Amino acid sequence: MSKHISTPANTPRKISQNGASEILIEWLDGHESYLNVRMLRLACPCASCVDEWSGERILQSDKIPNDIHPVRIESVGRYAIQISWSDGHETGIYPFRQLRKLDQVGDKL
């Protein structure tokens, strides 16, 4: 069984930039997520930002500019997006499930 099973709660209908500091995700179940872009950058799951073996976050938040913003957002298959950031980082793939969870976590990262 695939760990990327699509459900209305983790399948976006539309993903768009919502002003300078938010990404808006409209989900198939009708929910809307307003995600702060700096929080998204800090939540990057790639191996440069999270230790592959321990799962410990190694990205230093003070190294991420407050005015960080997406330069490009691309779909990855039918399960994720990849964001190219204004700081040059572009290796993180954000699965839709993670994005939905980040909506619930908000700025608690």
Q: How is this fold's topology laid out?
A:
Blueprint: E1 12-17, E2 22-27, E3 32-36, H1 37-42, E4 70-76, E5 80-85, E6 93-95, H2 96-105
Antiparallel strand pairs: 1-2, 2-3, 4-5, 5-6
- Placed side by side, the strands forming the largest sheet appear as 1-2-3
Largest sheet: 3 strands, antiparallel
CATH level 1 name: Alpha Beta
Order of helices and strands: EEEHEEEH
Instruction: Give the domain tally.
Output: 1
Specify the CATH architecture.
2-Layer Sandwich
> N- to C-terminal separation?
30 Å
Low-pLDDT windows of residues: none
Number of helices: 2
Query: What class would the helix/strand composition place it in?
Result: alpha+beta
**What portion of residues is helical?**
10-25%
User: What is the arithmetic mean of pLDDT?
Assistant: 90
Beta strand count: 6
Radius of gyration: 13 Å
Query: Globular, elongated, flat, extended or rod-shaped: what is the shape?
Result: globular
What is CATH's topology name? NE0471 N-terminal domain-like
The percent range for strand residues is: 25-35%
Question: What does this protein look like?
Answer:
The chain is of the alpha+beta class and 109 residues long. The protein has a single domain (8-108), classed as NE0471 N-terminal domain-like (2-Layer Sandwich). The protein is built from two helices and six strands; from the N terminus they run E-E-E-H-E-E-E-H. It has a three-stranded antiparallel beta sheet with strand order 1-2-3. The longest helix is centred in the C-terminal third of the chain and has 10 residues, at 96-105. The mean pLDDT is 90.
